[in-house]
Amino acid sequence: MPRRRVVRRLLVLLLVGLPPWTVIRWTNPGGSVGYDSYFAYGLGTLFGPLGRHFTLLPTYLDHAVVTTYWQQAWPTGAFLYACALASVALGLIGREDRRVTAGLLGMAGAAELLHAVGLVHHNPRLLVLPIGTVLLWGVALARYRDALRRLVFVSPKAPN
């Protein structure tokens, strides 16, 4: 595969990790509105009464008590995304299996969707936008459609 294509896919995948993956709109009992966001690399407040703050994912995992499945889904999605980045980077030396990368992107998007659904189930007053799911699945479909087709429709080999 041409090196330019691999570099382009790597850049596209890096860009997927920059915007917030989950945006949450919340309202305090006093009526103030705030926006929190979960990124692939951390979480923070975009706008709120206490101002902006940001916590990196390793610091969050070091201090947080993550007990429910949907709270575990966000770091799991970030890990799967990092694995997809590593898989694409292997393409620079000709060792990428595009089916693995596509599967990792699909699972990372599903994990982020599970996180968003869990947030809404836990607190129905939240407005949750799972942007990461759309981005991850969009890249998987746009850049890895052929690999996804081969991943899902594996044709069995005839016995000899």
TrEMBL record:
Q: Which Pfam families match?
A: DUF8050
In this chain the DUF8050 domain maps to: 3-151
Q: Which residues form the signal peptide?
A: none
Answer yes or no on keyword Membrane: yes
Q: Which UniProt keywords apply?
A: Membrane, Transmembrane, Transmembrane helix
Give the highest taxon in the source lineage: Archaea
Looking at the UniProt entry, the stretches that span the membrane are 73-93, 100-120, 126-144
Q: What is this protein called?
A: DUF8050 domain-containing protein
